[in-house]
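FAQ
Q: What does a multi-component entry look like?
A: The components come first, one per line:
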Amino acid sequence: MVSRKQALLEVKGLKTHFFTEDGIVPAVDGVDFSVAAGETLGIVGESGCGKSVTALSVMRLIASPGRVVAGSILFEGRDLAQSSQEEMCDLRGNRMAMIFQEPMTSLNPVYTVGEQIREAVQTHDRQISDGAARVRAVEMLRMVGIPLPEERYRAFPHEMSGGMRQRVMIAMALSLAPALLIADEPTTALDVTIQAQILELMKDLRERVQTAVMLITHDLGVVADMADKVAVMYAGEIVENADVYSLFREPLHPYTQGLLASIPTLASTRNQRLNVIHGTVPNLLRLPPGCRFAPRCPKAMDICRQVRPTLRDVDGGRQVSCWLY
Amino acid sequence: MTADSRAVGATEELDLPEMGQWALVWRRFSRHRLAYLGLIVLVFFVVLSFGAPWLAPYPYDKINMNDNYSLPSAKYFLGTDELGRDIFSRLLYAGRISISVALVSTLLSSLVGIIVGAAAAYWRGVTDMILMRLTDVMLSMPTLPLLLVFSKMLREYPTLKDTFGDYLSVFVLVTILTLFGWMYPARLVYSSVLSLRETEFTEAARALGSSGWRILFSHLIPNSMAPVIVISTLGFGQRVVLEATLSFLGLGVNPPVPSWGNMLSQAYAYMLRNPWLAVYPGLFIFFTVLAINFLGDALRDALDPRLKV
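Then the predicted structure of the entire assembly, as tokens:
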């Protein structure tokens, strides 16, 4: 059902490598996914699996020594992997925007939050007058649920709490009604109640503005709550692509199964040990020859240790990269 | 309709924040008692100096040999010098030169320093290499001998002589003070931009589509201003003193244009006959520099919105 919609963003075979002194680190190594307008794609995986690098690659914000070495990033019909930085400047903030993990430091401390939103508006809309841009900034603050937006316009970031700042970041990112919003762990730095508010806000805005969202997180609860479909990443690859219901009902990849099994439930008793996935993420400089998850996989077979599986279509419009299927 | 009227109301209300910001700056500033005092002293000297043409009782070069070495009197407020010129009038005119020289050269070197430091730190690579090595080279030069050589060289340059006339020495002084002063702000700005360019808000600005120039000028430079403000105020003080030093060596501002420095150096010759000749310009320099040094810290605190009210 999901795949029938026309893709707004279609990433194919994306590889982003970091050329370090110790060798080439394939942080993202051949990733495919797509997001349609108004849809939310959750990208999950543990730390260092390449989620953020994927997001930054789509924005073309990878800094040296990293580089997008292969693949295409089709966004609204053009390939961002081939676009110049000038074209990207024009798109960023305008058609695609990003919110970051750290609301405490993502705002410039020397300007009031209102001025920063106003600047974001004026960066792309040079015709708009100062007054009109201010009005727009206040409207955005009101939209993200900041009380007394007229007064908060002239507040400095340090005068606001983390949740408020994240709202400001969202207001800024959405001030130009982008077609795609990339949210890189937007709630990780916030406490749980604020987290719920921010997620609620994002849902609400998504419905009103019809923005496609790429939600990057390691929190499966957030994914279950927000996403339409999910891409599970492991060591720079997507191991499973599925719509959110199928994924939680019947995870196919052993890694996904492990992730879901490790969530403590209310039913689990005290003293019961948490399920964990044994072992650690492989060093990206020395990857195993076969499946990257094989060393930690409880169902590993001989072929897994020798030949690398690829992402293949399975029943129900899902994709999984595992020799079991 | 209702949305419109609400929006208009919002704009009217929002014309205030700039005002509010400056009121806040003033409030933070006036908390520093010494700085407050410094500001008053400085304003006093600036008004006296720049109002010299209206405030001074005599022209600075009015010679009256009958009245030389007068003590303070109703006729000559602070007495007269060896040629019978009114010391008070000369001090005011001299202040105009001394303060302008220090102010202009401080502003110029801060400007150059900010641009050099920020550009080097932001673009890295070859730009960084060239600009910062140049800074290092300039910093390793023994300043005083070079100041002397440069000031001598520039002074002999005929075109400059024709353009500036009596004020040639003032121009030369501003030039060399700038030439040898921009490295300090450059290094400061360099180091802070270097760390600021890696911050999340810079990345966030980039993610919102800001161009490199915009990030540099509206995010990185404003964030690195606090130390520059301090070093510039201190630098202003140093330059007033340096002007006096160079003038004392005959390489600063030349007579007949008076400056506090060359008044001091002339007084040197008549030290025993009338020590007051040296004391007055000395005191003017002393209080001006002290006042501006008090000001620096407070200015930084006042202009930094991160500090609490």
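Q: Is there any commentary attached?
A: Sometimes. For this entry: The domain at 97-281 of chain B is CATH 1.10.3720.10 (MetI-like fold).
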